[in-house]
Amino acid sequence: MLGNVRANRAESVLARAVADVKAHRRAPLDISDMIALQNDFFDGFAERVLPRMIRLARTHLDKYPEFRGQQKSLNRLLERLENWDYVVSKKSDSTLIYSVWVTELKKTLLRGLFPDPEERETHAFSYSSETFLANLIVRWEQGHDFDNAVCELDSRKDCMYNLIFALAESWKFIVSALGEDVVLSSCFMLLERLGVWISAPIDVPTPAAEHDAAATAVSPGAAGLGTELLRFSPT
Asked: Given this model, what pLDDT does residue 49 score?
C-alpha cells in the first residue's frame, strides 16, 4: 500500500513541475526547486492512514462505555485532525495530535511482540512499524482483522478498542504534559516543553473528571515524541 512515500511524493512534485514547464506555465526547474523539494515536509504516510483512522474512530467511538465520558474531547481532537494539511510543522497543533495518536497506537499493537517498554518504544518509531500499521488499518477499513492477535489489550482482542484507547491515551498525554489546571486552548505550551514550538491553539475545554484521570497518566513516550518531532520539523 505505502511503497516509499517519500520517493512517491518527490516523483509527484517533480512530475507536476515538469508538466507545468512543458505547458509553459512556469520557468524551467533550477536549484531553487531542488532546495524546495528537500524542504518539503508533507507527510505522505499521514495522508494515507489518518483519514482511515479518523473514519474508524468516529464509527466505533460510541461502542465502548469506557470512553463515553471523553467523547466530546476525543471528537474535538478528531475535528482538528480532519482539517490538517499533512505538513509536519512545529507550528501545527494537528502535527502534535497525529504524532501522539499514531505513536500510542503502534505501542499498543506492539505490546505482545515487544514486552520490554524501551524496546517497544524503539520499534514504534521505526519505518517498519509504519508498514505494519498501514496494512492493519487498510484491513480494518475493509471490515477485516478486527480480532487480530496483536490487538490483545486489557484481556480483550479488539482492534477498534486499541484505536480508541490510543486516542484516549493521546488526550491524557497532552493534558498531563500541560498540567492539571491548563486546558488544551494553551496547547502550544506542550510543544515548548518538548523543545518544539507551536502557535495555533486547540480550543478544547477540559472537564474536571478527565483532568483527574489524566494527571496520573503521563505517556512514557514524551521524550521520544519530542525527538521525533524535532527530527522531522522544518522550522
From this structure: 93
Residue 170, CA distances (Å) to 102, 149, 235 in order: 9, 23, 24
Burial of 140 (0-12, 13-18, 19+ CB in 10 A): buried
Q: Does the pTM exceed 0.90?
A: no
Distances (CA, A) of 206 to 70, 173, 184, 187, 217: 10, 13, 7, 12, 15
* Mean pLDDT calculated for residue range 125-154: 84
- Residue 1, pLDDT above cutoff 50: no
Average pLDDT over residues 169-195: 58
CA 198 to CA 187: how far, in whole Å? 8
Considering only 32-36, 121-125, 207-211, which range has the smallest mean pLDDT? Answer: 207-211
DSSP summary character for residue 42:
B
Question: Which residues fall within 8 angstroms of residue 223, CB to CB, at 6 or more apart?
Answer: none
Enumerate the domain spans of the chain: 5-38, 44-232
Residues 6+ apart with CB under 8 A from 164: 57, 60, 61, 63, 64, 67, 74
Question: Nearest Cα to 173, choosing from 145, 213, 126?
Answer: 213
Q: What is the DSSP string of 73-120?
A: HHHHHHHHHHT--SB--TT-HHHHHHHHHHHHHHHHHTTTT--SHHHH
Q: Which residues contact 144 (CB under 8 A, 6 or more apart)?
A: none
